[in-house]
Amino acid sequence: MSLQLQQTMQRRRGLFTTDHRTIGIRYLLLSLLAVAIGTVLSLFMRIHIVSPDLKLPLFGQIPPEGYLALVTMHGTLMVFFVLTTAPVNGFASLILPAQIGAQRMAFPLLNAIAFWLTTLSLAVLLGAFFVPGGAPISGWTNYPPLSAIAAAGPGQATGMDLWLVSIGIFCFASILSAINMLTTIVSKRCQGMTLLRMPLTVWSWLVTAVLILFAFSILFAAVVLLLSDRHLATGFFVPTGEVINGLLLDNANPHANGSPMLWLHLFWFFGHPEVYIAVLPAMGLTSSLLANFTRRPVFGYRFMVTTTLLIGVFGLLVWGHHMFVSGMNPYAGTAFALMTMAIAIPSSGKVLGWLAMLLRGRDSRVHPLPTPMLFTLGFLSFFIAGGLTGPILAQPILDAYLHNTYFVVAHFHLIMAMAGAFSLFAAVYYWFPLMTGRLMNETLGKWHFWLSLIGAYGTFFPMHFAGLAGQPRHYAQLAGSTSTLSSLIPLQTGITHSALFLAGAQLLFLINLAWSARRGQPAGENPWQATTLEWASDLAECKVVRGPYEYGFHTNTQDFVMQYAVEPEEE
Amino acid sequence: MPATFTRTPTDIERKDPGIGGKPPVDRRPTGGGGGDDNWDNHPQGRRGPRELLTRYRLGLFFALAGDLMFFIALVGAFFVRQNAGHFDPRDNYVSDWHPLAVPPILWINTAVLLLSSGTIEIARRHLFHEVDVMEEWLGLGRPAVRRASPWLIATALLGALFIDGQWIAWQQLESQGLFFASNQNSHFFYLITATHGIHLVLGIIALAVALCALFLLRRVEMRQVVVDCTAWYWHTMGIFWVFLFFLLTCFQ
Fold it and tell me: Mean per-residue pLDDT for A557-569?
C-alpha cells in the first residue's frame, strides 16, 4: 500500500469521515449488503414459483401477495441500491478524484452527507418489511391506483409510505452526489488534464451525473405528488369513481379525475435514464480494461466519448418504450420506437469498438487473461445478448405481445443485472489493490467467473422462451385454477436450479474478498501496468502530458506510458 | 529531465484572516498558456480564491439545474392535467379544469420579490469591491461587510414580506372557498406556490446564515462565496417565480 494511502486511511477512519476513498468503500459495502438481501429475495421468488406450497423456515408459506412484495423489494433494492449506488457513488468516490489527479472531491462534506442519507434510505426501505401489512406489492414501478390507495392491498399502507420516503431520501442523496461529481470533474482536474485526456470512466461518470441530476429530480417530484395523493386527498393519479374491492373511493373529490398515465410518464422519464445510469460507468470501465489487458489504446477515443454523450442524450428521449401498451397515443409510440432504435446506433458503435479492440489486441494481450479481463469479456457477452433483444422490444407491435412477459425479464436481467454485475465484479477485482494493497486470488476468481457465466446464462436465457410462450411477469404460481402455463413448469424449474447455482457461485466471490483482504498477494504500485492516474504513486503535484491510453507504443522497455510521465523511458 | 514531485505550498490550508498567500482579487492570469500543457489556462497555484468561488458557483449551478427539473415536472403535470378532461355519458368531452383568478396581491408579491433581487445584488457587489476586499484581507476592519449587511437584511425583510403576501393570497382564496383539495387546478395553484414558497423560506434561512457568516467567518474568500451563492440562489428563485407566475396568470 502506498505511503499516501496508508497515511490517509489512518487519518480518516472516523465514522463521519469525508475522505473519499473511505466513503467509496463504505458505499460498496452498502451495495454488497443490498445485493445479498436482493439475491435472497429472488431465490425465495424462484423457489416459490416452482413449489408454491413450500413452507419456508421462518416465514411459512408465501401467499401470492407475499410474492409480489418479494418482487417489489427485489427490484427496488437491486436497481437503486446496487446498480445505482455501486458503479456511480461507490466507484466514483473511490476512483474519480485519483483519475483526474485531484487530492479530494469538490465537496467532501456533501459526499459524506450523501452516503449517510443513502444508508438512511436503505434502513427505511428495509423497515418496510417489519411494519404491519409488510412490504409494498406494487412492483418497483409502483403504478397507481394500486400504489396510491392504502386500502388497495396488503403492504400498501405503511409499507408503501416507507418505500416512498426511502426513495425520496435516495433521490436527494443521489442529486447531492451528482452535484459533487460534476463539480469535481469540471473544476478539480489537475494541470494538463484536458477534457479529451480524461479516462473514459471519467467521461461516463460525467454523463451519468448529468442524467442523475435530470432523472432523479423528476422521480422526486413524482414521489411528492404520490405522497400528496395518498395523504392530502389530491387526485393527481387516481381516476374518478374508482372502485377498489367493491368500495367506491371517496378520498379524492368527485372532480379529481387523475390519471395513472401521469405517473407512468413521470416515472419512466426517470426510469429509462436510470438504466443508463446503471450501465454507462460499466461501459467506460469496459473500454479502460480492454485497453489495459489487450495492451492497445482504446479504439477511437473521441468516438467512444461521442457515443457516451449520445447515449446520455438519447436516453432522456426514449422513456415511452416502457409504455407502448399503456393506452398512450400510438403516434407517440412510433416516435418513441424510432428514438429507441436510434439509441441502438451509438450502443452498437461502442460494442463494435470493443470487438475491434479485441481483434486488434489479439497478439499483444496479457496471457493468461486475468480475472478483471474475464469479467469484462463477460460484460461484453451479456451486453450483446441482452442488447439484441432491445430492438425487438422496441417495436410496438412486438411489444404488444411481449410486454410484461418473461421476455422483458430476460432482456433487462441479461443487459442490466448480469452485465452490470459482471462489470462491478471486474471493477472490484481490478481496483482491489487500490482498496487493500493486495490482489484477489486468481484461481478463485476464475472459478467464480466461469460458474457465474454458466449460471447466469442458464438462469436468464431460457426466460426468453418462457416469454415467447406467453408467461406473464409477477405470477406467483403456474398451476392452480387453470393449466395454461403448466407446460412451462419444467422450464421454470430449470431456471430455479440455475439461479440457485448462480447464487451459490457468488459465495466464491465473498470468500475471495474476505480472504484476499487479509492474506492476498501484495500488489505493488501498478499491478496491471495501467496508464491512468489512479495507479500513480504519491501524486502530490500532478501534471498530465499525454492521453489516457498509451499502450503498446514502445517495445523496448515497457509497453505503456503513464499519463503524467514526461519521457517515455522514465516513469 | 526526470519528473519530480515537489510539494508546492499551495496545498497548505490557511486559517488566519488571509495574510499571506494570494489576495482574493479578481484578476485572471493573462499569460502562462504557452509552452506547457496548460490548455485550460489554470493558474499555476490552482488553489486561489477564484477557483474556490468557481467551485461553489458550479455546485450551486448543478443543484439549481436539478431543482429546475423538479419544477419542470410539476409544470408538466400541470399541463397534462389541464388537458385531461373526461367523456360524459353522452360522449361529449368535458374539461374538468376550472381556471382560478389569481389574487391581485400576487402582482405586489412579484414586485417585492424583484425588488429583493435588486437589494441582494447590491449586497453581493459590495462584497467584491476590490478596495474594500483588500482592506479586509489585510485585516484593516470590515468595510465590505459593513456595507453589505444592511442590504442583506433588506433582502430578508422583502423576502419575508413576499412569503407573507403569499400567505395572504392563500387566505383570500380560502375565504372564497377554494382550498388545496377543492379541484384539480387549485391543487396546482397551492402546490406550485407552496413549493416555490418553501424554496424561498430556505433562501431566507440562507440569508440569515450568510449574515452570520459575514461576521463569524475569518477568511474573506469564504464570506464572498457564501454571499455570492446565496445571491445567485435568490436570483434563481426570483426568475423561477416570474415563470411560475406567468404560468398561473396566462396559462390556466
Answer: 64
Chain A interface includes B235 (CB < 8 A): no
Residue of A75, A118, A76 whose CA lies nearest to A93: A118
Q: Which of B44, B9, B6 is nearest to B28 (CA)?
A: B44
pLDDT digits (tens, 9 = 90+) for B28-82: 555 444 455 555 555 555 567 788 899 999 999 999 999 999 999 999 988 888 8
CATH H superfamily, domain B51-250: Cytochrome c oxidase, subunit III, four-helix bundle (1.20.120.80)
Helix (H, G, I), strand (E, B) or coil at A191: strand
Domain covering A16-535 assigned CATH 1.20.210.10 in the classification: yes
Cβ atoms of residues A424 and A86 within 8 Å: yes
pLDDT in tens, A354-380: 999 999 888 777 878 999 999 999 999
Residues of A in contact with B62 (CB under 8 A): 178-179, 182-183, 213
Find the closest chain B residue to A172 by CA distance. Answer: B66
Name the residue ranges covered by the structural domains of chain A: 16-535
Strands (E), B155-231: none
Per-residue pLDDT for A462 more than 90?
Answer: yes
8 A C-beta contact, residue A46 and residue A495: yes
State pLDDT tens for residues A284-331.
Answer: 999 999 999 998 899 899 999 999 999 999 999 999 999 999 988 899
CA-nearest of A509, A373, A375 to A441 is A509
Residue-level pLDDT at B75: 92
Three-state secondary structure call for residue A476:
coil
What H or E segment, with its residue span, contains residue A244? strand A243-244
Q: Report the alpha-carbon distance of residue A247 to residue A148 in Å, rounded.
A: 15
Which string of DSSP letters, residue by residue, matches A44-80?
HHHHHHH-TTPEETTTEEPPHHHHHHHHHHHHHIIII
Q: Which of A110, A190, A565 sits opposite B3 (nearest CB)?
A: A565
> What is the C-alpha separation between A132 and A288, in angstroms, rounded?
48
Question: From residue A12, how far is each of A9, A31, A153, B165, B246 by CA, in Å?
Answer: 5, 21, 47, 49, 50
What is the per-residue pLDDT for B178?
A: 76
Nearest CA-CA partner of A417 in A466, A378, A475: A378
Which residues 134-193 of B have a C-beta within 8 angstroms of A?
Answer: 180-184, 187, 191
Q: Up-side HSE of residue B167: CA atoms within 13 Å toward CB?
A: 9
- In angstroms, rounded to a whole number, what is the distance separating the alpha carbons of residues B147 and B74? 39
Evaluate the CA torsion angle A434, A436, A438, A442 in order and state its sign.
Answer: negative
Q: Residue A254 pLDDT more than 90?
A: no
Question: pTM, whole model, 2 decimals?
Answer: 0.90
